Amino acid sequence: MFDFDALSNAITRQTVLCVGDLMLDEFVYGEVSRVSPEAPAPVIAVQRSETDIGGAGNVARNIASLGARCIFVGLIGEDDAGAKLQAALARESLIESTLVRDSARPTTRKVRFVSEHFSTHMLRADWELAAPASIDIEQKLIDAILPQLPRASVVLLSDYAKGVLTARVIRNVIDAARKLGKPVIVDPKNPNLAVYRGATLLKPNRKEFNEATRSRADTGKSLAEAAQEIMQLADCEAVLVTQSEHGMTLVPRHGEPIHVAGLPVKVRDVSGAGDTVAAVVAVTLAAGADWEAALRMANAAAAVAVSKKGAAVVTPAELRRKILPHAFLAAEEKILAQGSELDAQLLEWRKQDLRVGFTNGCFDILHPGHVKLLTAARATCDRLIVGLNSDASVKRLKGEGRPVQNERARSEVLAALEAVDLVVLFEEDTPLNLITQIKPGVLVKGSDYTREQVVGHEVVEAYGGEVRLVDILPGFSTTSLVNRARGGAA
């Protein structure tokens, strides 16, 4: 569970040491209207071009875009592309780069030719030497990396198999990081995951995972079993498998696998989405987030990244909007009645494979204890529905003189909170019928309840949902506030 704003603020206090294969990404955009008379090939009339920091450099840019500091170590050649990358990184205020030069290899450069009209890649041209760095360059990389480890909150290895992360470099970095108690996140390229032995988290995509495990792993169970084998082999704490539009699954060594569905988005370009995921996982774990919070943040960031052209970076504002989409609706749009309108919204969310959470209460005078409860409840799910007792229901439960505010006022105040996605009134004394209609994946109440005291726990657990008791803020009570306001005892 996590508070987005608190986590975002904590991220700004972190430093990530990122090591990996740097490359220059160029995008050439134009129109295609004819075929060359010289060969059966389309002719692109170039209109514009863009240059980006790519590869592991894009990971560094995403780290900085989220507000964390990044110490970056990479490799370039003695060429114009290398000079461009060095100058571009120098302009990034939150990135401190150390680039080892190797005159024996070109700086990795990729040029993509894109049809502006159809927004499709037509051709990619690569300049690279995909071979391990020489012994001399290896040592220079190690000498540049190890002194920076004490300054870092977390280490991120971004492997594109272009020569930086040799077996010797990997071993030196992971061993030194473990001695200092620094977590190590790896975005791997080598199918022999044993070379990353001792890392905290491995983040392969589905194709890389299947190649490494030599399995199809096409179900949640088979994926979890294969991931456990990897963790034994690589002595790591968790494996995160990204699965494009199908979301991502994290399998920890201890505990149950966590899966989050891909968020609905119009995909414009998948370039660099994996970089974004790696960066977000690194900064969130460094900031103290648990696996689930890191996974949900990374999943939302991936959705933002693929909606942009090129190897894009994600800002905290974009991430916030993706994680809390209903926070930007007008309050009245978030208030529904029981019935067909609620059913339609639930059907839409289920089609998107979103986890729906539910909590309830009178919320007569909203206080910090309520806000903490709702924020914690929202962190357990993708969409949070709050069941609100009607005026008649509150009167029966609390007695004459309650509620202090009518149901419309209480609904609007709740709906104005960004943690709340929907508010639904119910007339009964308990929300049992509403819970039966919604069938939430998680039912949330404060820790002042026991599981058996939570109304609807039998219903939710019967279909495989869970009951979650979240910490409450002591010292806050609507009843005591009302009594003090009326001159009575607290």
TrEMBL record:
Keywords: ATP-binding, Carbohydrate metabolism, Kinase, Multifunctional enzyme, Nucleotide-binding, Nucleotidyltransferase, Transferase. The keyword Methyltransferase does not apply. Residues 358-490 are annotated as: Cytidylyltransferase. Its EC number is 2.7.1.167, 2.7.7.70. CDD domains: RfaE_like. The keyword ATP-binding applies. It catalyses: D-glycero-beta-D-manno-heptose 7-phosphate + ATP = D-glycero-beta-D-manno-heptose 1,7-bisphosphate + ADP + H(+); D-glycero-beta-D-manno-heptose 1-phosphate + ATP + H(+) = ADP-D-glycero-beta-D-manno-heptose + diphosphate. One of its GO terms (cellular component) is cytosol. InterPro entries: Bifunc_HldE (IPR023030), Carboh/pur_kinase_PfkB_CS (IPR002173), Cyt_trans-like (IPR004821), PfkB_dom (IPR011611), RfaE_dom_I (IPR011913), RfaE_dom_II (IPR011914), Ribokinase-like (IPR029056), Rossmann-like_a/b/a_fold (IPR014729). Transmembrane segments: none annotated. Pathway: Bacterial outer membrane biogenesis; LPS core biosynthesis; Nucleotide-sugar biosynthesis; ADP-L-glycero-beta-D-manno-heptose biosynthesis; ADP-L-glycero-beta-D-manno-heptose from D-glycero-beta-D-manno-heptose 7-phosphate: step 1/4; Nucleotide-sugar biosynthesis; ADP-L-glycero-beta-D-manno-heptose biosynthesis; ADP-L-glycero-beta-D-manno-heptose from D-glycero-beta-D-manno-heptose 7-phosphate: step 3/4. Residues 358-461 form the Cytidyltransferase-like domain. Residues 15-315 form the Carbohydrate kinase PfkB domain. The active site is at D275. It comes from the Bacteria. One of its GO terms (biological process) is lipopolysaccharide core region biosynthetic process. ATP binds at N205, R206, K207, E208. GO terms for molecular function: ATP binding; heptose 7-phosphate kinase activity; heptose-1-phosphate adenylyltransferase activity; phosphotransferase activity, alcohol group as acceptor. Residues 1-329 are annotated as: Ribokinase. Homodimer. Catalyzes the ADP transfer from ATP to D-glycero-beta-D-manno-heptose 1-phosphate, yielding ADP-D-glycero-beta-D-manno-heptose. In the C-terminal section; belongs to the cytidylyltransferase family. In the N-terminal section; belongs to the carbohydrate kinase PfkB family. This is Bifunctional protein HldE. It comes from Bradyrhizobium canariense. The lineage of its organism: Bacteria, Pseudomonadati, Pseudomonadota, Alphaproteobacteria, Hyphomicrobiales. The gene is hldE.
